[in-house]
Amino acid sequence: MVDVKNVLVLGAGLMGHGIAQVSIMAGYNVTLVDIKQEFIDNGVKKIEEGLKKLEAKGQLNAAEVMGRLKTSIDLASAVKDTDIVIEAVVEKMDVKKDVCKTVMENGPAHVIFASNTSTMSITEIGKDSGAPERVCGMHFFNPVPLMRCIEVIKGAQTSDETFNTAMQVAETLPCLRGKRYIAPVLKDRPGFIVNRMNAPVQIYMGWVFDQAAEKGIPWERIDADAGGKMPMGPCMLSDYVGLDTMLHVMNYYKETLSPDFEPPKVVKELVANGNLGAKTGKGFYDWSQGRDAIVEKVKKAEPAGIFNLEYSMAIMLNEGCRILEEGVASGYKIIDDANMAGMNTPGPFGAGKKNWEKWSKLLEELADKTKKEYLRPCELMKTGQFVKMRK
Ligand code: CAA
Ligand code: NAD
């Protein structure tokens, strides 16, 4: 196993700065790399803010922890003494392949490249790098310091040494809300476990968004439909993740899983106008008054009666069954636990064991209504056979 001391975090955006924060908190020497100094400065400022909060609570010495952080805008030279690179650049395959190759060409012979891609093939990212056995996935959830889950993904060529080292590094990274949950992902399929299971919910949400836009229904009324049963309603969560990320992700699923993942019109329009959600201050919502103002707005709104959380659970159960059919996870408890740790919402199998028949009917109706065939229940779900599988 590689003895990891020096970590390079590539990309200082939403995810990269969070990964760098927990990595310096774990005691690693970290170099944060981006393409422009201003992006690095933004990321460093956010890390400092986070550490100051913890210092105020008497949990650490911010200056001492910051002392383990270096920065660079030159990947090729910064990677020279790195043990593991955790990559959080934009969700574009050509960019990820390019930086992976740079790392393998310029880093030490043992360097590992771990991608934080939300969806894309780890095998493809590493394929032309010259060292695909040292490429794996380490998929974090947003915000990194607060969400417990990290999925560690084995690509088709990933060596056991690489996979085990990434598992071990993931275990060491602190989480501010309870113990980290590390989910091993055994097969490199789009979206891995948590995102894959939630992916077709986006087909449904997209249909809801476009219905609401057509009918002129305000977004807070759609989020009010979740009735406080999700930590964030579907519009708010999409803004929080980033509408550009949602668009890239849906386009990727459209190519790899089904044409039914065509992104909703309203999201395409928002992104085309530069409204990417919380990170640009505007998306479905105006974020200039902060998150709490939106939460208040949702609390006061009358539910629209369009978004139904039970459909989401049924969709997730169906996709969870497909994950089992494909051998991506070794049992359904891992799928439920990873969802709780990555999204702070229960996975579908707990309730699904009792409801699969009713939910299969709901999905048939939903597929008819939305004309999205991908939403129809798979064999494992509609026969209830998953109940008999290994937990
Ligand atoms: N460093 C130090 N402290 C921090 C911090 C940081 N970086 N960030 C927050 N904190 C502190 C806050 O100051 C706060 O401290 P106090 O309790 O002392 O005030 C504490 O941590 C909790 O923070 P919040 O008040 O902001 O937390 P919350 O209770 O409002 O919960 C949330 C926020 C956890 C994000 C919750 O809204 C939630 O679970 N939302 C859903 C998020 C989600 O689903 N994420 C997954 C998206 S999908 C994804 O990521 C995968 C992908 O590939 C796209
Ligand atoms: P972001 O737009 O906030 O940050 C991306 C950063 O990468 C930017 O600072 C950009 O300048 C930098 N970058 C672009 N090309 C680069 C290059 N060649 N070298 C170095 N830096 C480069 O995006 P994000 O939300 O942090 O997403 C980053 C990755 O994490 C994506 O693959 C995304 O799918 C994944 N992810 C995102 C979330 C989420 O909720 N946003 C959750 C999990 C995983």
Structural commentary:
The model has no long low-confidence stretch (mean pLDDT 96). Strands 3-2-1-4-5-6-7-8 form an eight-stranded mixed beta sheet, with helices on both faces. The longest helix is centred in the middle third of the chain and has 22 residues, at 194-215. It is built from 17 helices and eight strands. The chain is globular. It has three domains: 6-188, NAD(P)-binding Rossmann-like Domain (Rossmann fold); 196-300, N-(1-d-carboxylethyl)-l-norvaline Dehydrogenase, domain 2 (Orthogonal Bundle), CATH 1.10.1040; 309-388, N-(1-d-carboxylethyl)-l-norvaline Dehydrogenase, domain 2. With 391 residues, the chain is an alpha/beta fold. The structure holds acetoacetyl-coenzyme A and nicotinamide-adenine-dinucleotide. Residues 21, 50, 53-54, 118, 141-143, 145-147, 176, 195, 231-232, 237, 241, 245, 343-344 line the site of acetoacetyl-coenzyme A.
